[in-house]
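EI: anyone free to look at a 61-residue chain?
SC: sure, send it
EI:
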Amino acid sequence: MITNRVVDQAGCAFLSTLAQQSGATIIEGVTAYLVFDEVLNGAAIREQVAAADNKMSSTRQ
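SC: here you go
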């Protein structure tokens, strides 16, 4: 379930790229992602982005 959440929200390459570029383990990456998602209220940000979908031209996006 946690894996699906991170992959659905950050993409399938996120943790691999993070680990390669930072030297962090996958577990550290998951932990950091979940903490920052909570601290930054990622659900509200994603909701605002989704609400803007198809509300402006693709060139403006």
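EI: Residues 36 and 42 are 8 Å apart (CA to CA).
SC: 👍
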